[in-house]
Amino acid sequence: MTRATIAQKSPYKVEVQEGRKYAWCACGLSGKQPFCDGSHKTTDLSPIIITASKSENLYFCGCKQTGGAPLCDGTHNTL
Fold it and tell me: What's the whole-model pTM score?
């Protein structure tokens, strides 16, 4: 299994819109962090798709090591 690349050691704050789908980059290779640009195709990792249940700010994981994917759970503090 491919290990995800750390994109950054902090979360990405994103203002999501209710009803819109978001594809979180799980591999860390995307040039459009924190979202997928298809770079995972060279790995066995896949993006995680979420649909925003309401319009709000979310903190997407940047280190790609979170236990609560796709959102940050503070794991970056231990890296």
Answer: 0.94
